[in-house]
């Protein structure tokens, strides 16, 4: 605790005068609606799954450069990163690996089928207006890989009023940000939005000298990201709406792979979804979505050039039939993954057909949900998952929950086919999660406490020596040899007290590889955040702190990463009804810490932004 005590104390000392904007603001959860937890709009106070919502205002006022920076503030989430914004990043939900959680953008599943999980650095925060995080296994609703949780990102869309938005900003390391958007609707029920952005930074050297001769390079590792987002929707009549959402991003980024070459990469993210929403009967809503997502990674480095492209195409037909306050849901899906790389043997396709059935109940003080799903893959076969949850309202403001669910993670193409590493017979990982929680919300105070235990079998790890049946892999291989337990308490609190908004989170966890008895790499036993803000008319001042205990950079727990704590200060000033000024000072104590061994993190840095038209 001593490694991060000083920054925490500093945060508490300045809390009386300054504020964080991002998740410190208590929300009116009575009006908050979530979609991801049950695949249908549901009032927050009736959602049984543990969740967090990051609103458009919180994103706008955060001054965050990347989605990963934003997520680091949330309970139950840890991150790792090999440098600054634009570098390789991973997100751990309740101790689950990046590949053990699912990410959606506007209902479309995204990610890489070669490495597994989302390529976070390629997703432009400038195009996102809302984020929903749902914790715990959701394979019974979303299929493979939803073991630790699901994160859904919603792009910027039009509201009932037409508007124009402009955002410009500058900061340390020659950071420049530009964004412009138009949002509107017509009297004939046509809505549209178009938003474009560009962001660039000279960056800093990502690696440290201790990383070795094959990695370290003293040059600066900058990036440039250009992105575009659009939404079109037509309400043809009271029973039928047609629409299309699209977002595209290109990230050019420098990285370190030795001193003799200007190593660089390009990541392209492309997401398109067209949909039709129809009311087939007074109590029957039906939707059909056709989607395509592309995740492209190209590298030009001292060790050679490479590319790994994942294209996902699919359709989803969802039906919600209501019986009073209860809803019966049935879903049919088909998802094709098409992988193309310059590494021999990895390229290929797999197709997964799925069907799911779910029922949510709301009867007086009783809340319940039941769901089941079957996924049939052309590559790894058929898998069934299920979930059951029950909640009881002890009063209007206090509820207890309990749930149990199963999940699985599909092996990646690298784990199946990478030369000298992959094993074609590898099976999916399997998970069984049980949890119980207590939730309090009187619209002033919001408190939550959840205990969870997620048992994972057939854990895919890199093992050396390999089993006898794959003894030809001389330097180790991916194989289903281990078991893991992800258990812990996740605590959250927020309050709105007059002009004050307060927030705090704490996670006490034990993410353990049961086969070796070692802690899972880059995951701490304790981590959390603190925040407070104070509003004085048009001026808001605040502070926030993120802290973490020690971690290990490797599965063998030989390379220790020290605990850390950082403090950020924020100020926003409303110049007029349309113009707003934001200033953010990150890492005010200039704390030196690591999220990955021998890779730097940002030093003390500053950002100043001016925005027009935010609503």
From TrEMBL:
Organism field: Undibacterium macrobrachii
Keywords: Cell outer membrane, Ion transport, Membrane, Receptor, Signal, TonB box, Transmembrane, Transmembrane beta strand, Transport
One Pfam family hit: Plug
Protein topology in the membrane: Multi-pass membrane protein
Protein name: Outer membrane protein
Presence of keyword Disulfide bond: no
Domain TonB-dependent receptor-like beta-barrel residues, every copy: 198-588
Cell compartment(s), UniProt: Cell outer membrane
Residues annotated as domain TonB-dependent receptor plug: 46-150
Family: Belongs to the TonB-dependent receptor family.
Span of the signal peptide: 1-26
InterPro entries: Beta-barrel_TonB, Beta-barrel_TonB_sf, Plug_dom, Plug_dom_sf, TonB-dep_rcpt-like
């Amino acid at each position: 605790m001593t490694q991060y005590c000083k920054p925490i104390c500093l945060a508490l000392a300045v809390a009386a005068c300054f504020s964080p904007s991002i998740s410190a603001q208590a929300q009116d959860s009575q009006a908050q609606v979530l979609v991801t937890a049950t695949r249908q709009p549901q009032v927050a106070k009736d959602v049984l799954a543990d969740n967090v919502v990051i609103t458009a205002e919180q994103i706008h006022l955060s001054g965050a450069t990347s989605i990963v920076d934003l997520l680091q503030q949330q309970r139950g989430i840890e991150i790792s990163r090999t440098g600054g914004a634009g570098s390789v990043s991973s997100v751990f939900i309740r101790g689950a690996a990046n590949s053990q959680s699912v990410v959606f953008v506007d209902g479309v599943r995204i990610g890489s089928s070669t490495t597994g999980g989302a390529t976070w650095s390629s997703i432009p925060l400038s195009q996102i207006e809302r984020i929903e995080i749902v914790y715990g296994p959701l394979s019974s609703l979303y299929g493979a890989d939803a073991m630790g949780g699901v994160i859904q990102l919603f792009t910027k869309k039009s509201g009932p009023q037409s508007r124009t938005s402009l955002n410009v900003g500058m900061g340390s390391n020659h950071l420049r940000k530009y964004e412009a958007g138009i949002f509107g609707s017509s009297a004939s029920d046509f809505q549209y939005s178009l938003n474009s952005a560009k962001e660039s930074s000279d960056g800093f050297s990502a690696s440290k000298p201790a990383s070795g001769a094959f990695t370290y390079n003293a040059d600066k590792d900058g990036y440039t990201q250009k992105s575009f987002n659009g939404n079109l929707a037509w309400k043809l009549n009271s029973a039928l709406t047609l629409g299309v959402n699209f977002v595209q991003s290109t990230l050019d980024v420098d990285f370190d792979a030795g001193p003799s070459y200007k190593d660089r990469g390009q990541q392209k993210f492309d997401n398109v979804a067209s949909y039709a929403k129809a009311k087939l009967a007074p109590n029957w809503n039906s939707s059909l979505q056709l989607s395509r997502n592309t995740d492209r990674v190209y590298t030009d480095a001292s060790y050679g050039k490479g590319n790994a492209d994942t294209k996902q195409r699919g359709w989803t037909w969802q039906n919600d039939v209501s019986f009073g306050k209860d809803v019966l849901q049935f879903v049919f899906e088909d998802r094709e993954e098409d992988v193309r790389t310059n590494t021999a043997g990895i390229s290929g396709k797999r197709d997964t057909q799925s069907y799911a059935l779910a029922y949510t109940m709301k009867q007086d003080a009783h809340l319940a949900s039941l769901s089941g799903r079957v996924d049939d893959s052309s590559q790894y076969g058929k898998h069934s998952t299920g979930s059951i949850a029950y909640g009881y309202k002890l009063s209007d403001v206090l509820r207890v929950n309990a749930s149990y669910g199963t999940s699985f993670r599909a092996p990646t193409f690298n784990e199946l086919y990478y030369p000298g590493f992959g094993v074609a017979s590898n099976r999916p990982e399997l998970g069984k999660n049980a949890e119980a929680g207590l939730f309090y919300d009187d619209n002033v105070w919001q408190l939550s406490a959840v205990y969870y235990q997620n048992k994972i079998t057939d854990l895919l790890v890199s093992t050396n020596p390999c089993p006898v049946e794959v003894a030809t892999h001389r330097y180790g291989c991916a194989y289903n040899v281990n078991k893991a337990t992800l258990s812990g308490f996740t605590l959250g609190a927020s309050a709105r007290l007059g002009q004050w908004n307060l927030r705090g989170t704490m996670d006490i966890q034990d993410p353990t590889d049961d086969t070796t008895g070692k802690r899972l790499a880059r995951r701490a036993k304790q981590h959390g955040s603190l925040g407070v803000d104070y509003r004085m008319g048009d001026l808001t001042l605040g502070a926030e702190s993120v802290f973490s205990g020690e971690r290990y950079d490797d599965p063998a727990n030989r390379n220790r990463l020290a605990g850390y704590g950082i403090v950020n200060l924020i100020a926003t000033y409303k110049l007029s009804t349309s113009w707003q000024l934001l200033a953010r000072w990150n890492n005010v104590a200039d704390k030196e810490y690591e999220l990955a061994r021998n890779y730097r993190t940002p030093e003390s840095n500053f950002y100043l932004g001016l925005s027009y038209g935010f609503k």
